[in-house]
Amino acid sequence: MKHDFDVIVVGGGHAGADAAHAAARMGARTALVTLTFESIGVMSCNPAIGGLGKGHLVREIDALDGVMGRVADKAGIQFRLLNRRKGPAVQGPRAQADRKIYREEMQREMRDCPNLTIVEGEAADFLMSGAEVRGVRLADGSEISASAVVLTTGTFLRGLIHIGQVSRPGGRMGDKPSVKLAERIDQFGLPLGRLKTGTPPRLDGTTIDWSDLEVQPGDDDPTLFSFLSSKVSAQQISCGITHTNEQTHEIIEKNIGKSAMYSGRIEGVGPRYCPSIEDKIVRFAEKSSHQVFLEPESLSDNVIYPNGISTSLPEDIQHDYVRSIKGLENVTILQPGYAIEYDYVDSRALDSRLAVRDVPGLFLAGQINGTTGYEEAAAQGLVAGLNAAAVALGRDPITFSRSNSYIGVMVDDLITRGVSEPYRMFTSRAEFRLSLRADNADQRLTPLGIEVGCVGAERKQAFEAKMSALAEARQDMESVVFTPKELVTAGHAVNQDGKRRNGYELLALQQFDFDALVALRPEWGAIDEASRDQLSKDAMYANYILRQERDVAVLKRDEQQRIPTDFDYMAMEGLSNELKMKLNAARPDNIGQAGRIDGMTPAALTLLLAKVRQSRRGMTA
Amino acid sequence: MMDTIFALSSAPGKAGVSVVRVSGPAAFEACRVLAGDVPARRVGSVRLLRQGDEVLDEALILTFDAGHSFTGEETVEFQVHGSVAIIGALLARLGEMPGLRQAEPGEFTRRALENERLDLAQIEGLADLLESETEAQRRQAMKMFSGALGQKAEGWRGKLIRAMALLEVTIDFADEEVPEDVYPEVIAVLDGVMAELRVEITGVAAAERIRTGFEVAIVGAPNVGKSTLLNGLAGRDAAITSDVAGTTRDVIEVRMDVAGLPVTFLDTAGLRETEDVVESVGIARAKERAAQADLRVFLLDDPSQGAELAEEGDILLQAKADVAGGSFPGVSGKTGAGIAELITAISERLSSRVAHAGVATHLRHKRALQEGCDALEQARDLMLQNVEMSEIVAEEIRRAVYALDSLVGRVDVEAILDEVFSSFCLGK
């Protein structure tokens, strides 16, 4: 049957934009269904992209030719590389984004994207063919059919906004929640949970007294997200820093009972790493002051996002406590802060493509899977978009591993462990973080992107040129060796172990930087700056990465031990009931995933492996 | 549905009482069929076991609920009269019941492990306990079975999680209000853990000795009375004794319980210059085994001259004290004079070594402890050099945790993040 489209993406947020763009890049005829075109690329929370772990995700999206990185580069009004003093493995690029430019640039990307059609309307229901999703029905009754649908509806599922004692249904401020769609999802019988998140009040920058406030400028040498970007586009600004004080805390403490969070009105679980100001004051009562970043949302208006004081207190209390803060004595609140509760789908119901296991044709990406953050959303959108296209075009699944990307770490965490609070990426989640770096995201993923067909000609060319320069430089460095004696003569303290070392191996030693090598061999001065930088970073962890390869091999071996999708855990002998239920909920693809399920013991894993082997023998016999 | 398993849990053969254990979901049903009802939990009850109208035996029955038994499953123990015929009939009757089957060797323990009633170290402890022959072995195995290693490991685990959380908070939350320099606290934590690991590593050797036994070699010139002494110690003719010098050409071993410690005495060939090829091979072997032994007892014609192979702590004795006399402590295998004193001397020396035994007892433990300790040392060295790349320090600690995995259980990132979020006020 001929469908109207190959892939439909519902939702134009960060997950939806990268999902639709990815599917279209794959060559799938794609429709992006959004309430209004104007809402594509809206940043509903903090106007910043990247950070630790998150910056890695943006680089990986970019390496696969996704849109988030290059749009953020255009919209960036302050760039900072976090952990600049630590090693490159844990450095995270971050940018303050101009909300307006970001939206406009994202909309331009969508408009200009071949194979992509924007459909304005509310997706009210799915078109079904038996148990399979085959398209969507809009609120006006029109129908659009497709081979696969990616649902990226964020917090819109039974969204409930809380400001103090007032609660009302709603997704993001000003949008209406999708009740009909939620009812349909109920019919699928997917396991649901409830989460909570919040935002601070927005302030009028013209009413802030900036004169005595500390200023945080961006980096002098901005680190951009996209491997294709070369310079910043927008005018660069600084952020202000102020602090809450004892008076602020007193106001909040006195009114804590009026907070939606503390009056028992909210049942959802909030993120521990992004607590409301009420949470901070209750949980860390010994601190008499908390930092607040005053982040301009745009060059073209005066809205300030006060990062650090998200709240669900009533408007009048917000007004009082905000004005108790230095510099904000006469501030005007443009929009009050609020908490939002929403349903999410237990991500253990998904497979590694982010497809719903029991509902063929349906993919889920973004906040609906219990994650938080634009970057986490966009990365999932990319995975779902690529795989929805693969389904429609009859191609193999495109999956990611913990050993090749943060995307792989996140997807694996989601589908094997599920979430108990909004899931955010951290570098500490990646056990192979020394090799999964922001600087080598292209080396890790662009070849995969070229192979599956989601990388455009421009990036392919740039990547191949970079790699050939890098390979040439590395070969050059490896072709010349030095004896310890030669090195000591040149004034370097190295072990007199008789071991000859080539230029690349020397770079791995702590006491050698590139300039020291050029002093040893002036010809190396001809190596370009980008290659020097990359070789230094690659060499820095070489010895540790070598050691980690053993762990990677174990992981790969476990991942190759596939578990049949219909494997009957409940019938297994010798497993506790609790573990059986957990395995049944996650239904891991392989032994590696099974081992990461919470509560799994070595004995239970051995047993599972034995049973899987037994059942496989049974099948081939 | 999981099988219900049963087996004779006491030693096979004729006995006063024999115990048949049934574990699994059908255990209570089996009890009801045999005894007419399921007696109250954890209280001994006497019932007649029947097969049809026929009485099999009168038995004492113990029942345990799931979660309160050795295996973690519903369990029934039948204490019956230890007759081969009764046991045979009872096992046959159980085997006929639906869902019941004979347990495989070790299956009760395996289920205990799978149901998390015991951890791996406890199971090793249990195996040692069942094998134990002497009091020191029993005490050590019991310590391990009761989870002493698990408790220590729990402490190390908590400290390492703290150390990792401190490092990770400066990495993953660098843009927030977190402590600038956590190295001093991390170093202090690692130093504490490493000190404890080192104590355990040293203790493994002693603990291993308790498990496998000490070796004490009896050394001396030919015909000095070594074999006679061994016989005197053992109270039986284990080694051939004769008056012809050089009779003992091989190494003879006698295993004994010395004040609760398992000791193997080695009777070695007499040491002397010889032309005899066979004897010289025996002498070479004697020297080698004597050197490897934990303790040497030298029988000497003149102890005041010392002995060539003696090490610190060895025992030097006047040989054939019954005829030689002299002022040095002596021993005579023939009359038994000095043997009690010798046993006291040996047990004192070995006991002082055992005092160092820790809760880690197997080589498997030692390897893990050593690898973990090495990685922690690396991490500490990097911090002392003030290397700013805390991701590398964190990687070394991760390796340590990985190595200690089998002892402390898996430390995953959620445990570290829990510590991070409970200790620091994060979130801009």
TrEMBL record, chain A:
<comment type="function">
    <text>NAD-binding protein involved in the addition of a carboxymethylaminomethyl (cmnm) group at the wobble position (U34) of certain tRNAs, forming tRNA-cmnm(5)s(2)U34.</text>
</comment>
<keyword id="KW-0963">Cytoplasm</keyword>
<comment type="similarity">
    <text>Belongs to the MnmG family.</text>
</comment>
<dbReference type="InterPro" id="IPR036188">
    <property type="entry name" value="FAD/NAD-bd_sf"/>
</dbReference>
<keyword id="KW-0285">Flavoprotein</keyword>
<dbReference type="InterPro" id="IPR004416">
    <property type="entry name" value="MnmG"/>
</dbReference>
<feature type="domain" description="tRNA uridine 5-carboxymethylaminomethyl modification enzyme C-terminal subdomain">
    <location>
        <begin position="539"/>
        <end position="610"/>
    </location>
</feature>
<protein>
    <recommendedName>
        <fullName>tRNA uridine 5-carboxymethylaminomethyl modification enzyme MnmG</fullName>
    </recommendedName>
</protein>
<dbReference type="InterPro" id="IPR026904">
    <property type="entry name" value="MnmG_C"/>
</dbReference>
<dbReference type="Pfam" id="PF01134">
    <property type="entry name" value="GIDA"/>
</dbReference>
<dbReference type="GO" id="GO:0002098">
    <property type="term" value="P:tRNA wobble uridine modification"/>
</dbReference>
<dbReference type="Pfam" id="PF13932">
    <property type="entry name" value="SAM_GIDA_C"/>
</dbReference>
<comment type="subunit">
    <text>Homodimer. Heterotetramer of two MnmE and two MnmG subunits.</text>
</comment>
<dbReference type="InterPro" id="IPR049312">
    <property type="entry name" value="GIDA_C_N"/>
</dbReference>
<dbReference type="InterPro" id="IPR044920">
    <property type="entry name" value="MnmG_C_subdom_sf"/>
</dbReference>
<dbReference type="InterPro" id="IPR002218">
    <property type="entry name" value="MnmG-rel"/>
</dbReference>
<dbReference type="InterPro" id="IPR040131">
    <property type="entry name" value="MnmG_N"/>
</dbReference>
<feature type="binding site">
    <location>
        <begin position="11"/>
        <end position="16"/>
    </location>
    <ligand>
        <name>FAD</name>
    </ligand>
</feature>
<keyword id="KW-0274">FAD</keyword>
<keyword id="KW-0520">NAD</keyword>
<dbReference type="GO" id="GO:0030488">
    <property type="term" value="P:tRNA methylation"/>
</dbReference>
<feature type="binding site">
    <location>
        <begin position="270"/>
        <end position="284"/>
    </location>
    <ligand>
        <name>NAD(+)</name>
    </ligand>
</feature>
<dbReference type="InterPro" id="IPR047001">
    <property type="entry name" value="MnmG_C_subdom"/>
</dbReference>
<keyword id="KW-0819">tRNA processing</keyword>
<dbReference type="Pfam" id="PF21680">
    <property type="entry name" value="GIDA_C_1st"/>
</dbReference>
<dbReference type="GO" id="GO:0005829">
    <property type="term" value="C:cytosol"/>
</dbReference>
<dbReference type="InterPro" id="IPR020595">
    <property type="entry name" value="MnmG-rel_CS"/>
</dbReference>
<dbReference type="GO" id="GO:0050660">
    <property type="term" value="F:flavin adenine dinucleotide binding"/>
</dbReference>
